[in-house]
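User: structure tokens for this one?
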Amino acid sequence: MLEVQPRPIAREAQVAYFQEMLEIYSPSHAEKEVAEYLAERMQGWGFRRAYVDEAGNAVGEIGATAEHATKTIVLLGHIDTVPGFIPVQIMEDGDTIYGRGSVDAKGPFAAFTLGAAALAGQQEALAAARKRIVLVGAVEEEAASSKGARFAANQYRPDFCIIGEPSGWSNITLGYKGRMLINYELARDTKHTAADGPSACEEAVDFWNVLKSFATEFNQGKSIFETLQASLRSFNSQANGFQEIAHLFIGLRLPVNFPTDEFLLKLDEWKVDASLKLSGEELPIKTDKNNGLVRAFLSAIRAEGGQPKFRYKTGTSDMNVLAPIWKCPILAYGPGDSSLDHTPHEHASLAELERGANVIQRVLWEL
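Assistant:
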């Protein structure tokens, strides 16, 4: 642990920064303005380097250079959001702030940048300790391409990685389910409605029902993190006078140790002669509790007056992308209530943002 003490960013400045960040609308594929804003702010706080990389990520570095570092810590959080701008507003209580991304996941990345900014004045001490801290505001996480994380995967080989996702300021996330997306299409020659046999739409419904029944049976007696979650995201059909075509779009959340190969064989059997296209495939991830990164977070949360808890989420994140590649201690952390993700009333607590930034500051100082 370093001996000098960091200087946290003042509360008023934290609030102004977060508000400005939220006011820049940045749905997936439109992150350029917010990335440039973040690079400018990190540069103003005294980061050793701050820039927008080739993928469009906002990147900031403090401490030792890559050539001289013996320990590299990467904090990666996504700066894109789902569509739907929510007017940014601080409520009368002075603590609640509304805005798209306030939880998922500009809030966690704001905590990352504020926590690291508190250490930016100690560049010489960090360099002397040969510690390199890299922040990556990643693009296109919500688009399921994870373009920013996949680019970063080839740029760094960290000793520790922190993913920016809402866990609540006193919790850390150690696991995410995997993902598989299924595009189903079935075409049948048009026939009279009085003719015998199922329509393309009816066959598509049968496929969904078989899949859903399989998931229900598989899930018996299991906790939510151990279940196969299947959701029918869209269903539509069309007819051109010669053919009737049915389309299904299905999302699957896969548990750790799910028998994927066996399941793929079943899909091939259930589809009959329909077309299936799989995409968005990510492996589930569950990480170890017994490492220096987890211990640093437990200590930092307790020092801020919290009672830390471990969380395991049913969604996916850039942690699914990076954990298999970097193979280092990794977890997800960030202020915010994840039940508000993607909702029209997304909002966060400014006090929780401050606590989250303090936790990050303590973790970076201790590692």
